[in-house]
């Protein structure tokens, strides 16, 4: 393979090469970093021969090329959306590029330095190549190199990405809200500027910080696709610009429109990375598998581990947790084959409802007179790992913590403190707050043999002020709160290497590649309705690996939708992710418990495929009349698990055979349950008959093993 990074001195062209893609840029004779290519493989010679992307100035109105700079700055006659916009102390806003050398700290990283010819600002564009996974990682670093006057950074994106010229463009992205997260939308990209953003202080339920772009011709199986994902867990913004002459660029970065950074002399500001991934063929399915492979290879803390079957008490006992009712649930869960028992909200302080107690992280004396250790011991005795729910960034005003430290929350001095779910946000950017949180979390985990934490975050920011910030720069909390959240997780994991973490923010309100780097699974939605969940899971797995996707079977009628779906269908939905159970087992009938035990065993027989295999989306979730189906293929191709769900067929119609993917044509595959043997070619060409029972809410799992 070619060197990951090559440089042509004559033209100052850089070529970044991965296994199947190339990315090229050039520092032009004015010192401006210009984009050249992002697509299939090129040689350095070929890259050096190409013109820079973008268009020449052709009137006194359009200005410099709107697309094609590696980081579009505010300055001179540029009229596109700036990825970097600063204001110097004298009021000057424009930025001018001047190349200032480069560094290659290792074989896969290059840092291109630029300085402003007049003002003391150094800008560095960072590029890291992941040759084996085709991902190009980009970020920006700003340094104040002077000794006087602050520099105000109004916007600092991680990168501008230019997409090659095509006749048309289509955008795929995920939108949502609480209990309706990650709904995939695929739509023609309008001309003009399209902004995807979160202003909530978290990644947010509303939108996911990733985009997928194609020329309108890609399918699940075919076509070229470009994509970008931001590794950041706070507010963010992605601005797509499609010009009238059909050029397309994407600016991606942390912070939303109102968030600024003030750089003091000697300070630096590094953006989080944006990950760029192009797949040359194979459409959206191949793109998803490439993202999963990248995140598994470079990001997840323990990609080789298999997530245990989990039980969570939230929907069963709500805030009324006691030692007795948790022990009872734990013993029932253990008989079903559950491997991790998680006690949810309600175990601490005066937390008998959501009006009080958050912030007071000592066990409720009435419910747990001898602390949590007796429950942890009992759960361990039953052969399960022990997990606990926490919400470290939050406080109820009705708590001892808030009474002692009313200044620890985000607030503005002359504004009402808006409560959401009766709680306020602790300002983790304050070092004493982060230190307090580490201290009690460290003790909680250490003293109670906690194996698993579900770290929740149940509201968005409001009145996000820090009036007594010592340097008068309260706005930095938008970045520093997120950095503190990341670093607390990192420190906690380092101090307790056996600890595993489930990310949660009222369901899927905070999931992104930076969260996946520090957690083991994600509670992706509070909506556990199995039919809705197939839609949410479909959107989640566009980028994120299935093994991180916690999915529970809960009771009916469903708490979110009121719908009653049979147990088997509910199980099959949750079994296509990291299976968990969240119903009140004390109310399950003996035959339901028996069926659940069988289904947990069925899951254990295929979960190595679900969690470590390759995902093929055979039929996306559509209306309730149509079949939804996914397939998981073992990395060596020797085993397959196929899941099918048909909620409410019309006229008794059965779905057509399901054509499988990725099998060997000349191999045979055996179903261990029935002994049926299939030809690989037949499964690929004619398809698998799922033999769904003729009833509503029909579902199945078929396991196939190559003979
Ligand atoms: C959030 C979570 C739920 C549960 C509750 C507890 O809504 O998403 O799973 O933990 O908080 O209050």
Describe the structure.
This protein is of the alpha+beta class and 707 residues long. The protein folds into three domains: 72-298, alpha-galactosidase from lactobacil brevis (Beta-galactosidase, Chain A, domain 5, Distorted Sandwich); 310-523, Aldolase class I (TIM Barrel); 628-706, Immunoglobulin-like. It contains 13 helices and 37 strands. Helix 10 (530-540) runs parallel beside helix 11 (567-575) and helix 11 packs parallel to helix 12. The two termini are 35 Å apart. The relative contact order is 0.09. The mean pLDDT is 97. The structure holds alpha-D-galactopyranose. Alpha-D-galactopyranose binds next to loops.
Keywords:
alpha+beta, single chain, 10-stranded antiparallel sheet, binds alpha-D-galactopyranose, 707 residues, TIM Barrel, 8-stranded parallel barrel, 3 domains, Immunoglobulin-like, 28% strand
Q: Would you identify the CATH architecture of the largest domain?
A: Distorted Sandwich
In total, the number of strands is: 37
Shape designation = globular
Portion in beta strands: 25-35%
Figure out the total of helices: 13
CATH topology of the largest domain: Beta-galactosidase, Chain A, domain 5
Largest sheet: 10 strands, antiparallel
Mean pLDDT: 97
Ligands: alpha-D-galactopyranose
The helix/strand class is alpha+beta
Number of domains: 3
Rg: 26 Å
């Amino acid at each position: 393979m070619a060197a990951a990074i090559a440089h042509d001195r004559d033209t100052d062209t850089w070529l970044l090469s991965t296994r199947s893609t190339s990315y090229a840029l050039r520092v032009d004779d004015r010192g401006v970093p210009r984009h050249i290519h992002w697509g299939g493989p090129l040689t350095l010679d070929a890259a050096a021969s190409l013109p820079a992307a973008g268009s020449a100035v052709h009137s006194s109105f359009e200005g410099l090329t709107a697309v094609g700079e590696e980081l579009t700055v505010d300055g001179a006659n540029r009229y596109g959306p700036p990825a970097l916009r600063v204001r110097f102390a004298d009021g000057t806003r424009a930025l001018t590029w001047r190349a200032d050398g480069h560094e290659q700290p290792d074989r896969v990283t290059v840092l291109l330095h630029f300085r402003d010819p007049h003002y003391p600002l150094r800008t560095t564009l960072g590029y890291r190549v992941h040759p084996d996974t085709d991902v190009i990682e980009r970020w920006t670093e700003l340094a104040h190199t002077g000794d006087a006057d602050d520099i105000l950074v109004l916007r600092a994106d991680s990168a501008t990405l230019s997409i090659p010229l095509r006749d048309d463009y289509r955008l795929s992205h995920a939108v949502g809200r609480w209990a309706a997260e990650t709904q995939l939308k695929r739509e023609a990209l309008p001309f003009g500027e399209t902004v995807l953003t979160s202003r909530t202080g978290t990644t947010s339920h509303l939108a996911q910080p990733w985009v997928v772009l194609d020329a309108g011709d890609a399918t699940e199986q075919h076509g070229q696709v470009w994509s970008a994902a931001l590794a950041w867990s706070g507010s963010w913004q992605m601005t797509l610009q499609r010009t009238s002459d059909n050029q397309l660029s994407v600016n991606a970065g942390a912070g939303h429109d109102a968030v600024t950074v003030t750089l003091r002399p000697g300070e630096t500001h590094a953006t989080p990375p944006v990950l760029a991934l192009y797949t040359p063929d194979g459409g959206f399915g191949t793109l998803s598998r490439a993202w999963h492979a990248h995140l598994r290879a470079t990001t997840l803390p323990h990609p080789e581990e298999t997530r245990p079957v989990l039980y969570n008490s939230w929907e069963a006992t709500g805030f009324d947790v006691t030692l007795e009712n948790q022990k009872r649930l734990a013993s029932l869960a253990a008989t079903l084959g559950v491997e991790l028992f998680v006690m949810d909200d309600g175990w601490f302080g005066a937390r008998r409802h959501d009006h009080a107690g958050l912030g007071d992280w000592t066990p409720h004396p009435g419910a747990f007179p001898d602390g949590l250790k007796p429950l942890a011991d009992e759960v361990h005795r039953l052969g399960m790992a022990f997990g606990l729910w926490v919400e470290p960034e939050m406080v109820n005003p009705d708590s001892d913590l808030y009474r002692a430290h009313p200044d620890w929350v985000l607030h503005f001095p002359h504004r009402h403190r808006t409560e959401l779910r009766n709680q306020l946000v602790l300002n983790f950017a304050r070092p004493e707050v982060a230190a307090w949180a580490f201290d009690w979390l460290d003790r909680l985990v250490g003293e109670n043999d906690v194996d698993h934490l579900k770290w929740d975050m149940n509201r968005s920011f409001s009145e996000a002020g820090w009036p007594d910030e010592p340097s008068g720069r309260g706005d930095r909390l938008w970045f520093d709160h997120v950095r503190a959240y990341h670093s607390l997780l990192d420190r906690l994991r380092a101090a307790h290497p056996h600890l595993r973490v489930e990310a949660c923010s009222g369901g899927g309100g905070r999931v992104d590649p930076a969260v996946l780097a520090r957690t083991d699974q994600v509670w992706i939605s509070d909506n556990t309705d199995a039919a809705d969940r197939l839609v949410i899971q479909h959107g989640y797995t566009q980028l994120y690996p299935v093994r991180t996707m916690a999915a529970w079977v809960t009771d009916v009628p469903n708490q979110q939708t009121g719908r009653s779906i049979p147990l088997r269908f509910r199980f099959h939905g949750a079994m296509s992710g990291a299976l968990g159970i969240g119903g009140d087992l004390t109310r399950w009938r003996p035959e339901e418990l028996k069926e659940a035990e069988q289904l947990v065993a069925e899951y254990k027989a295929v979960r190595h495929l679900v969690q470590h295999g390759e995902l093929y989306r055979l039929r996306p979730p559509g209306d309730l009349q149509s079949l939804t189906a996914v397939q998981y293929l073992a990395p060596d191709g020797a085993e397959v698990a196929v899941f099918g769900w048909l909620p409410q067929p019309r006229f008794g119609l059965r779905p057509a055979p399901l054509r499988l993917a990725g099998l060997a044509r000349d191999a045979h595959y055996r179903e261990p349950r029935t002994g049926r043997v299939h030809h690989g070619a037949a499964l690929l060409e004619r398809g698998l008959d799922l033999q769904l029972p003729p009833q509503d809410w029909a579902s199945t799992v078929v396991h196939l093993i190559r003979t």
